Amino acid sequence: MKYYTKEEKILKIPNLSAYGLLAEKGKEYKNAIAYNYFGKTATYTQFLKQIDEAARAYRCQGIRVGDVVTVCMPNTPEAVITFYALNKIGAIANMIHPLSGEKEIKEYLNSTGSVMLVMIDICYEKIKNIISETKVYKTVVVSAKDSMPALMSIGYSLTKGFKVEKPKSSQEYVYWKDFIKKYGKYNGKYEVKTDKDTPAVILHSGGTTGTPKGIVASNQAFNAMALQARAPLRGFGLGDSVLAVMPVFHGFGLCVSIHIPLILGAHVILMPQFNYKKFDNVITKYKPTLIIGVPVMFESLAEQNPNIDMSFVKFMVSGGDSLSLSSIKKVDDFLASHGCKVKIVQGYGMTESLAGTAFGLAECNKPGSIGIPLPGNYYKFVKPGTHEEVPTGVDGEICVTGPTLMLGYLNNEKETNEMLQKHDDGHIWLHTGDMGCIDEDGVVFYKLRIKRMLVSSGYNVYPKYIEDVIEEHEAVLKCTVIGIPHPHKGEVAKAFIVLKNDFKESYVLKKSIKEHCEKHLAKYSIPYEYEFRESLPKTLIGKVDFKKLQEEANSKKEDKDLEV
Fold it and tell me: CATH 3.40.50.980 occupies which residues in the chain?
């Protein structure tokens, strides 16, 4: 508490939806820029009008209170407009990764009971194969060029757009511009006043087992985090800008990169695709005062060491995974040598708490720390598997309580109760599955993951789910997946495969398994390496010895480094 001002400690969350708070703030900001998409901008007034037209169109096409609409989009204006438009009419946005496999998309649609789909056109090749097996009655098709400046839109059509297989306009498929033009003038009742405790969005993560689950986040979670962020982002608001490269289908991207800046009056620079090699060009072109990303982004920038000015950057925030001490020094040295007056700070959170629950402040930014709990959040450290607190400075499982916790896993009471546990103090605590400690100054340090999970380019990758997919292949008897280091992605998946007796290792078979993965897994979770084994090492109680496989992989890397 000593790090926050008297005003920052007071957290009054209005009884509004995420859209409701945006509309309230938008009237205040009016002519300020709300978003920038490749140089094409919209003011807050224009943005709210776009949201209103989309809300009318969705309501006109049958979307009602509590309906789920799946949004399969990268960071484009249409994706952001849709999120707020659905929120305005009391519907729930189910945000999914456009690079998800066919099987995953079908599961996302069916598990949430989605009745409408909003997708980027490049997904049609997958959607056409599974849409008939869902409840979706209409699909709105968006192109990345729809909101681009005119010349850029033409260039996109000539170089990339013509390659994309697209559906014909029909009763089932409607293109975004036609959707807004035909239905955006709807005159019936469409806006719904929802309170802060109602569901706003469904996000997806692996929970405690690695099996994908829908995480239901409330309107309160979005608005609470936007108001909490005023403390660590002191002085950030009108006239500032954020580089929104974190995807909107992730809590980190949707809330921290979009909702927070908009509520604070800044403008959002939307980037549907991120290229590490062009990071310096993007920074130079747009001059964002707040840059939010994952460790590999900043490590890559520092490693390339481009000759650019960074003096305009007010905040540099890393999340999604932890930065090593050596990486922190490398990034801070880079910033200092390029005119930046701030150091990189880390945040900590998980999708089950929407995004960040702790955040670094300049005055308590200790090397390797993840900051302090945001106002209204409380941290507790317990012996794993218990509610028993450990002393200050001792590692324990990180537990969090506060206003941004999920409402629960969709239709999964068992795992909800494992993650959200009521303690003797009467509070509901999120058991993160991560180990960490708090020091005598109240600063939190993250140590390691209890659950078996790896982080690739900031995305959570769950070995158990990859294993299940690979074991569906007719030739595979057993599969085990571990994480191995990657110079740019942090970690990538490596699959150890035992074949059935009737099959032998071959180039054709390996290609078949890879194609199977490409069809059923999100791009970032497809194994980077495949190794065939006669058998897998076992522990004394007969389980696969993941630790031994990890040690073997690390040993091979060390041998390779020595050779180099």
Answer: 17-194
Query: Strands (DSSP E) along 383-475, which ranges?
Result: 396-401, 408-409, 420-422, 428-438, 444-449, 454-456, 459-461
- List, as one string, the DSSP characters of 28-43: HHTTSEEEEETTEEEE
Kindly report the CA angle at 374 between 294 and 363, in degrees rounded to 5? 80
Tens-place pLDDT, residues 312-361: 999 999 987 777 787 888 999 999 999 999 999 999 999 999 989 999 88
How does strand 33-37 pair with strand 138-142?
Answer: unpaired
For domain 219-451, which CATH number applies: 3.90.550.10, 3.40.50.12780, 3.40.50.300, 3.30.750.24?
Answer: 3.40.50.12780
Distance between first and last Cα of the chain: 50
How many angstroms separate the CA atoms of 19 and 194, rounded? 10
Residue pair 279/301 in contact (Cβ under 8 Å)? The answer is: yes
Q: How confident is the model at residue 11 (pLDDT cuts 50, 70, 90)?
A: very high
- According to DSSP, the residues that pair with 175 across neighbouring strands are 141
Q: What is the pTM of this model?
A: 0.85
The SS3 of residue 185 is coil
What are the tens digits of pLDDT across the range 246-293? 999 999 999 999 999 999 999 999 999 888 888 999 999 999 999 998
Look up the CATH number of domain 17-194.
3.40.50.980
How many residues are given for the chain? 564
